[in-house]
Each structure stands twice: as structure tokens, then as C-alpha cells.
Task: structure prediction
Amino acid sequence: MKQFLECGKVVTTHGVRGEVKAEVWMDTPEEMTRLKTVYLREGAEALPVERARVQKNMVILKLAGYESPEAASALRQKVLYCDRADVPLKKGQYFLQDLMGLTVVDADDGHPYGTLSDISETGANSVYHITFPDGSIKLIPAIPQVVIGVELAEGKMRIRPLPGLFEGAEEVRE
Result:
């Protein structure tokens, strides 16, 4: 598992004191404002956060060492990373990057369906994209009635598809 995870991207400078505006790739902008340090180049360069605030689903960051708009402009379009240790997860929560690539198996008989290849956010819940061995992609809702368990150490996600969710899945299973 990667120690440093993508958490956002600097889109522009903000104001005259060297602040930057960042697009948030975390669950909420508030979550990003709690970070004390962000990183560039997958953790290679630490940038202490002096202050952070939410502005319209974006985060305004004041990073140590960037005191003017000219200095801060060097950060434009840079991806920001966070240390996974700085983002506490509740039981049953996972980093999306850790879920990607898991083998998706039937919760009852262990039969493999395919690989978790993408995740979409719909507002109500996430949708997992499962790539089957034949290259087809099926979508499942990320709800407790379907996703029965995740075993990161084993590289597996156990699911119980709702009736009709995988039309033609019987053919795939043969």
C-alpha cells in the first residue's frame, strides 16, 4: 500500500499572501483542512500547512515558504499528497486507492467475478466498476447489502449481487 495518497490539486493562487486554491480529492473539503502537512512528488517534499479554509468545495491553503502570489504560482497544477497516517479511518472505511485492483468474488461460493477497476461517486453512494475476464464492465452499488466484506490483506472484495445485477453472470461463471 502506498504511504502517500493523492488528496488534491492546486488550481490557482489566491490573494496576495501566497495562498493557493486546491481542488479536493478527499471525501470532504473539511477533511483536507485538518491536514497539518501536505506533500509534493508522492511524499518527497513536505509542505507544512499554516492555515486552511473551505471556499465553495475548494480549499484555500497557506503553505509554509510561499509568501507571495509569485512564489505560490510555482505550485499551480501540482498534485498534493497526504500521509495515510494523517487521515484516520473509521471501521469499514477504506482509501479508494486501496480498493482499486481488488479481486471481486462471490460472498457465498468464492467464485471470482473480476477486478475492481474504477469507482464513481453518484451522491447517494459510490458505484464500483467490475471488469470481468471477457473485458465487460458491470456496475455494483457500494452498499452493505451488496458489498459483504473487504479483505485488503488478501486482495479481495466479497459481494452478493442483487437479483438481476449481473445479467448473464451465469455465462461468465462457466
The first strand starts at residue 4 and ends at 14. The longest helix spans residues 29-33. Residues 169-174 have pLDDT under 50 and may be disordered. The CA atoms of residues 31 and 87 lie 8 Å apart.
